Amino acid sequence: MSESTSTQVIRRMAAPHRLPGALIGLLLVVACLAPLQLAPFHTFQLAMAMIYAVTLLGLNLLVGHTGQISLGHGAFFAVGAYTAAVAIERWDVPYLATVPLAAAVAFALGFALGIPALRLRGLYLALVTLAIAIFLVPLLKRFDGLTGGSMGLTVTKPVPPAWTGLAEDQWLYFLALATTVASFALVAGMLRSRVGRALHAVRDNEIAAEVLGVNLAHYKTLAFAWSALLAGVAGSVYTWVIAFVSPDSFALTLSVTLLAGLVVGGLGTTWGPLLGGLFVLFVPSFAQDVNQAAPGVIFGLLIIAVMYLAPTGLAGLAGRLAQRLGQLVRKGKSHAH
Hints:
By secondary structure, the protein is mainly α. Helix content is 76%, strand content 1%.
């Protein structure tokens, strides 16, 4: 696929899909009530889905809104997770303090990657990010004195304050929910600002953006850095919820699954990362239950089916259905009059 063709595809898939404020408020109320009604395991699953959604939010900022490509986003997620795990277990850093620490380390790594990425495009950039995901696992195993090597690190989960009256799984869920809401609000504000307009200009046409005064090097590097930062934040919360990190948890398949989840959720859309997070968590488990011998086959077929039925992702499909429903309602009212 040529660069111009791929840019057109991203632009078509990146149409905004915004929800009314009342609906967002309703979703937040449901999200707050969910852990009080669900079993601990299902509460844990939803917390993990939100963690993946924050990771995909960062990937969406890079791929969907800036038009870059990354096949190694799982590496940034792993960096955040390991930073939090090492800080908690080795250095006795408070749990909440690991979030800005993991964010800073991932931001620095993303910024460092963004500099050489300025000279690369398309498949060349994809190969560089892919290489990062490949060599991260053996690198984590090599420094066993710090990372625990192949055995990984076990982390004590944060204890809920007594005044909350919450169980451990519920407390972790609300921590994940607060992180998700804050991350989505941050990115939404960024995309509505001058930065967001510049990123979209870079995505749509780099030459035209540069003619209009957009600093390509600055905004491309910024996109990589902020994308990595969000993955690092998600990784730190992942460590709290799972209470264990190991190199094999962040293999290359994680990066590929994250990218697939973003495309399925809706590339460049507002709510695509959230739908993609649900996809990343539940679909592999579903594929494993359907066929334990070849879960990858089932997973791949499901991706093909979703892409065939909803080429702009699940968020795009939901947007079209809502638009169609609105047209039917307006038509019904016009006939009534």
